[in-house]
Amino acid sequence: MKKYFVPTMMVLLTATTCSFAQKESNKNIPITNWLQTNPASIQLPAFHSSQNINGKNYELQHLLQENQLEINSIRPSEQEHLKWNKESLQWSKTSTNKKGFVSSKVAANKLLFYVAYFSTDEWLQAKLNMETYPMLEVYINGEKKISHYESAVDKAKEISETLKLEPGKHCILVKVISGEKNNDFKLSITPTENWTESNFTFSISPEQNTTIHKVLDGVNVQNIELASDGKLALLSFSRTLPPSDNTENWKEIQEVASGKTLYTFRGSQLANIQWLPTGNRISYTKEYNEKTSLYIFDFTIGNETEIATNIADFSNYNWTPDGKQIIYSVSKDYSEEWKIRKFQGMEDRLPWFRTRSFLYKLDVASGIKQRLTYGSITTSLQAISPDSKHILFSQSRPDYETYPYEKQNLYQMNLETFQVDTIWSDKLFGGLAQYSPNGSQLLVQAGPSCFGTLGENIGKQTLANNYDGQLYIYDIKSQKADPITINFDPSVSRAIWNKNDNNIYLLANDKDYIRLFQYQPTSKEFNTLPIDSDVVGSFSLSENGKNIAYTACSISTPYKAFVYELAANTSSIIAHPQEKNLTHVKFGKTEDWNFTKEDGKTIMGRVYYPPNFDSSKKYPVIVNYYAGTSPVERSYGGRYPLNLYAAMGYVVYLLQPSGAIGFGQEFSAEHQNNWGITTANEIIEGTKQFLKSHSFADADRVGCIGASYGGFMTMLLQTRTDIFAAAISHAGISDITSYWGEGYWGYSYSVNASGKSFPWNNRKLYIDQSPLFNADKITTPLLLIHGSVDTNVPLGESIQMYQALKLLGKDVDFVQVKNQDHHIKNYTQRILWNNTIFAYFAKHLKKQPQWWNDLYPDKNL
């Protein structure tokens, strides 16, 4: 089968010389309809007739060259207004005259803007042709392509430029300075090679499908924290700064009721900003001479107070509930410069292994700092008691003799006497603990095996998947635990015990949703909070326990910040920074599609349709999965923004195979000692059923893609089926044995993927189920992509599969992303990485190799 793929309408138009032989006989396509503004008044600066330091005069053309507006942000629609100083310029429709020129009769030395849009259904090359009398500049998607700075009188000036156009919608903007006589210009496009007029669609509407830039660019809200009374919110924001790879991060304080921004910390050097447990006060840190000072700022009186100074190796801090003390951590790296050394254990190869962290106490009133913990093992703060008299802290250490090869001790310390009591020791599956409102119990967040089999509900499975988050209420005096989520299928990722109403609020994976739940200890009931979003990203509780702050998104809606009033059970939006960025973006339909296996098990999935979907047509299909222990949530964006794939003309089928958390413990436990056999069969069966059930899905053009464990699945699938026309593996595992031994998380991840199985006692799993040992069975074209410094799944996992397939004469390509780890985070490389995926699927699923050939031309090496 063939496969197809073209996700984002990213528009990077590169004005370079065409590498293909251009066929000048191709039809010239005129742009006939435009949006035009009223003429804008422009003024020459004072002393424009004098010369500058280089002996040059200020010319009229300089008013054209100086961008008074942010060109990238201009995407108007008809009747919209453009603010120009005190004027309001309206965008109105205009058309070319009989000679194909845009004509405007205005007084000289006025500035006019023209905009038109065109869409391309595939990557292509074209010539942009301009005939002009006035001075003007032409921009494509914010990038200057043509400039002309001399007014022509008798004959129009002819200029052309070569464009490389990615699939999607493109904006042409023309800036004109009117002349004394003729202000006419003509713009057209000539496709090269075998492209024709049918590959272009022209309009004056800014409506577009989503693009990679719509996913990556703009301001994003990351987190929200409430002041003690819930009336003020501290929001964290970030934004990319294209075309650079830099990112700006900052915080703001908003008034919840009005939404007004009261303070911004944009550009400040403050760090570790957080609310105090009482009053409208924040604390933060500053760095001086590589040491840390702590400050408090009181918004009521507008006063800053320094409460600690000269702390070396400062890491993080927490306030005690009474606001009188701070518990902070100091971390120090004990690594030494070396040319040769002996490892002191398996983890010693990890760069952070020799870093140790210990706890200190700061008495705010006196400024006294006291060390709380010492030793050779890191101590981690877990909780502070409601009465501010005790803390919980833990220590974890490797134990290579006992599964799961790590043990945890949990201690309680009296902050006045420094007396330490052991809560538990040598716990094989440790957890995170916090105090109940009265301090007599602990809320423990851990895996199903934290208290032996007490919290396990795995049915016929042998070992639990301890990535499946559970909650326990642990009585400190009796040392007994109650597994409150044993019959609760969602997997818990965070929980808070509210001192105001004594209920527990938790964030949990509920299949492919991430929801907020309430647990009532008295009735032992779970309730879903009525939040109209698919995925909650983060949440926090105000100190008074009356409000929850959270961020959330949905499939076609980016993250927003909300405040939820517990008494009223209502949410209000605090921040929606991406609203303007997505004003004209159109998304396709998304719907659930599940199938039932022969054994009666239901495998959930969903389908993403292209915008303007037509069921009478045939579409190429992209099959996506993770297949590891986490479901692919219904979030916006992400590593694989599936809306983007659909926007490029694909039907996208995503499924959630066995082994994922959020479906119940028995379901997640199927991840153990399986390594893809069950999940591969489910992906194959689901794909076949999907193709059979949907007549618009082209069974000859189906591609598949996955990353990490999903990259492993991509490789494994090709050893077991030929239903795919193209396959892409990002950071995939080709040999389970080498990943187990070399990846930073290899053997520790295997605790939940191949518990108690090793290369020497389970060759069937480690060898027979490794794609590398079945490479000769692969017939599908395969693209391997890998970050060159991936520490999770080492680069060698792709190298060895590439070498195997090359020696076998298979259709394989290998692309490395320089200096990127397991995730591609660098802005420009993320775009190139996405383009690589899009171009590969276009080549194999749409029979459009030009984009791929332009990105990766064959070299005579």
Automatic annotation (TrEMBL):
It comes from the Bacteria. Residues 1-21 form the signal peptide. Transmembrane segments: none annotated. Pfam families: Peptidase_S9. InterPro entries: 6-blade_b-propeller_TolB-like (IPR011042), AB_hydrolase_fold (IPR029058), Peptidase_S9_cat (IPR001375). GO terms for molecular function: serine-type endopeptidase activity. Keywords: Hydrolase, Signal. GO terms for biological process: proteolysis. Residues 643-847 form the Peptidase S9 prolyl oligopeptidase catalytic domain. This is Peptidase S9 prolyl oligopeptidase catalytic domain-containing protein. The lineage of its organism: Bacteria, Pseudomonadati, Bacteroidota, Bacteroidia, Marinilabiliales.
